[in-house]
């Protein structure tokens, strides 16, 4: 079972991934482009944490 801090960190990362994905879909790509690298880093981190 993850500690309270691990769970909180995963929730924060997941929240960022969901909101950044929404911005990428809704906003023009020129506006959303700075979010894409961080979105990918957090997404990979979440996937590695789950495995």
SS class: mainly alpha
Q: Give the count of structural domains.
A: 1
Order of helices and strands: HHH
Span of the ends, CA to CA? 14 Å
In this structure, how is the largest beta sheet organized? none
Number of helices: 3
Q: Runs with pLDDT <50, length 5+? A: none
Share of helix among residues? Answer: over 70%
How does the overall form come out from the CA principal axes? elongated
Rounded to the nearest angstrom, the radius of gyration is: 12 Å
What oligomeric arrangement do these chains adopt?
single chain
- Number of beta strands: 0
Mean pLDDT equals 89
Strand content: under 5%
What this model shows, in words?
There is one protein chain. This protein is mostly helical and 51 residues long. It has one domain (4-50). Helices cover 84% and strands 0% of the residues. It has helices spanning 4-26, 29-32, 35-50. Helix 1 crosses helix 3. The longest helix has 23 residues, at 4-26.
